[in-house]
Design a protein that fits this description.
With 292 residues, this protein is α+β, with helices and mostly antiparallel strands. Helices cover 61% and strands 13% of the residues.
């Protein structure tokens, strides 16, 4: 089953301590590249998150965003550095005495000093949040994988239809090729009759010229290889594993055979069919770039 490399997924996991929210976005990429952005306090699990994501999402440039929001009940009151506050108080009182100032140092002045009040936070042990975080990651990966699968189904339908059209035009080339040789012989004979003006024609030489032309424009091998590539392409569309690279390779090989057919042909009808095939295959190639 085909999967697209582009997608989005979101997952959450909530406990009494708070909520992990994980968002994953991916775009096309030749290989699999996972980058993770998460709060500094959870960086110890960055590699574990990467492994969990790359185990299921094989190709694409994948960005993972992790957010942590503490529950209100888990938030603690601001913490006071009493020793630092006392140090500021003593210093300010000493300075007031040196300057001959009267009155007590106001509490608001002490509290306003840097480091006296620190924002409270709940500290979780790594084992406490690992399972919760990985649960959110897995939920996001599952959501993204479902989206990539849906897009992959649409890509498969489109590629199958385009491949069928290319095969139809290729069949017309196969049917047209023998007639090209016959028409060439007729045109060559008529030209020679006109040039010779009643003089006896060398049929052996005529047959040799026609045979040479038939050999030059023979595309049987290219058509056989193209049919083989078609079969492999159809088979790859049904495989369960990632096939983006295989399909990309097959598109290159198919394009090579079509180019050879075009270079060998001097027939306007075949040339027109080759142009159509190449235009359709270019659309296929663009779609294949989106496949995992």
């Amino acid at each position: 089953m085909l999967k697209s490399m582009t997608g989005y997924g979101k997952g959450e996991a909530t406990t009494e301590q708070g909520t992990f929210t994980v968002e994953i976005r991916s775009v096309n990429h030749r290989y699999g590249e996972v980058s993770v952005r998460m709060p500094r306090g959870f960086m110890a699990l960055e590699n574990e998150v990467k492994r969990a994501v790359s185990a299921q999402l094989k190709r694409g440039k994948i960005d993972v965003f992790v957010q942590w929001e503490e529950a209100l009940a888990a938030e603690s009151l601001p913490q006071v550095d009493t020793a630092l506050a006392r140090s500021y108080f003593t210093t300010f009182n000493h300075l007031a005495g040196e300057l001959g100032l009267l009155g007590q140092v106001p509490l608001s002045l002490v509290i306003a000093q840097k480091g006296v009040l620190r924002e409270g936070s709940t500290t979780l042990a790594e084992d406490d949040y690992r399972d919760q975080l990985m649960s959110a990651v897995q939920a996001a990966v599952t959501a993204m994988d479902a989206m990539r699968t849906r897009e992959g189904e649409a890509l498969a339908a489109d590629l199958s239809a385009r491949r069928a059209q290319v095969a139809e035009w290729t069949a017309l080339i196969r049917e047209r090729t023998p007639a090209v040789v016959v028409e060439y012989r007729q045109k060559l004979k008529a030209r020679l009759d006109q040039l010779l003006e009643g003089t006896e024609m060398d049929e052996t030489r005529l047959a040799q010229e026609v045979a040479l032309m038939a050999d030059r424009c023979d595309v049987t091998e290219e058509l056989v290889r193209l049919a083989s590539h078609f079969g492999q392409f159809d088979e790859a569309l049904r495989l369960p594993e990632p096939v983006g690279r295989k399909l990309d390779f097959l598109m290159q090989e198919m394009n090579r055979e079509v180019n050879t057919i075009g270079s060998k042909s001097s027939d306007a009808e075949i040339t027109s069919l080759v142009i159509r095939i190449k235009a359709e295959m270019e659309k296929m190639r663009e779609q294949v770039q989106n496949i995992e």
